[in-house]
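Still learning. Show one?

>
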Amino acid sequence: MKDRLKELLEKENLTPKEFAVLVGIQQSAVSHLLSGRNKPSMDVIQKILRVFKHINPTWLILGDGGMYKSIKPIQGSLFEEKLSTHVNIEANTHKKDENTLKNISEIPVNQVDKFLKTEKKIIRIVVYFSDNSYEEFNH
């Protein structure tokens, strides 16, 4: 299990600290898991799988199969009704986009310039966690 956790951190490009914050467990717990001192509880495994929804649970728990869930291509009959419904939905979406473009073209140029000239930049993000801790990111 420790090797799979190490691989997960490596593939997701995470430090143990970042992983602990994302999953919602203590940094020391991650350290113990990665060293092999402790094995993860079912609660920890569930937290990992809730955060990393694209990870194959069988791989994480048993080491079987690939690390990531496989994406199954949708295959249908040429004359399947669901496929034609899907096309109709996309056609309706396209019509909505055309209407939106018409509405946008009716906006006066001076208002458009006002929005384009606004250069707001994010300078600080604060993330609060359920355990009353927080992490601050500054630009």
Observations:
- The CA atoms of residues 22 and 44 lie 12 Å apart.
- The longest strand covers residues 124-128.
